[in-house]
Amino acid sequence: MYVCNEEIKLPHKDTIVWKYLDLSKFLDLLLCRQLFMSRSDKFEDQYEGTFSEPTYEELKKISENNPKFLDNYKSHRKNVVISSWHINEYESYAMWQIFTKNQEGLAIQSTIGRLQEALKPETNYEQHIGEVEYIDYKKEYIPFDNNFFPFLFKRKSFQYEREVRIISDLSSHKLTINEGLKTAVDINQLIEKIYIHPKSQNWYKNLVIQLMAQLGFDFSVEKSDLESDILI
Q1: Angle, to 10 degrees, between the axis of helix 53-62 and the axis of helix 68-76?
Q2: 170: closest CA among 121, 124, 122, 131?
Q3: 7-10 contacts: CB < 8 A, separation 24 or more?
Q4: I need a surface site. Which of 59, 71, 104, 222 has the fewest CB within 10 A?
Q5: 18 φψ region: left (φ > 0), alpha (ψ -120 to 50), beta (else)
């Protein structure tokens, strides 16, 4: 269930967000009606869920008489799952390049409000939505009075991601999480529009429309305009 956490920075509900993915992952989303959330320590960025240097120095002082204090933070990463979305009013050429491996990728367009509404209330663990802040990990401080803060800060090198996240802390649920888990969502609320890869062929767009129809969905499907004809 979605829970509003006032300590977490959240964009306006009308903010447009995107998720870029391959066809296989998109079909898995539609078939299962579940959104995959990755275990936080499985992301490519090794700093995921860790602290900046100033914060780490403070934590070391606190843990001098309690060695398990820092160990708890390290193990905590294994129990936090994340679904990442990209904030942008328009398509992102960089996101197409990074998150779709071939010309058969697509992008889901949604909004913050839709994400909130899509998260199922009957889910038995809390789900939070927050915008990532990008800081200098050598100089800037990350507060640690909220268990979600380490997962809402990243290094400035990742600013291009403009990321907003759905986050769940499953520490109290005693689950075995391998790569991640799937959480139930209202697909019709989650998806506002589908964009097809800019380098894809027309047959691919028709295939996506046909597959969605067979699964009972009728989303608006558009070809990315990044490859539109020039006007000169």
Answers
A1: 130
A2: 124
A3: 7/146, 8/128, 8/129, 8/130, 8/146, 8/148, 8/152, 9/130, 9/131, 9/133, 9/152, 10/112, 10/129, 10/130, 10/131
A4: 71
A5: beta
| pLDDT tens per residue across span 186-211 | 999 999 999 999 989 889 999 999 99
Summarize pLDDT for 43-63 with one digit per residue, the tens.
Answer: 989 899 988 999 989 888 887
Question: Mutual orientation of helices 202-214 and 23-32 as an angle, nearest 10°?
Answer: 10
The two tokens of residue 139 are: 């100089």
Tell the residue number behind the tokens 């990350």, with chain if given: 142
C-alpha dist (Å) from residue 44 to 39, 40, 49: 11, 10, 12
Residue with tokens 């889901």, as numbered in its chain: 108
* Phi and psi torsions of 118, nearest 5°: -75, -25
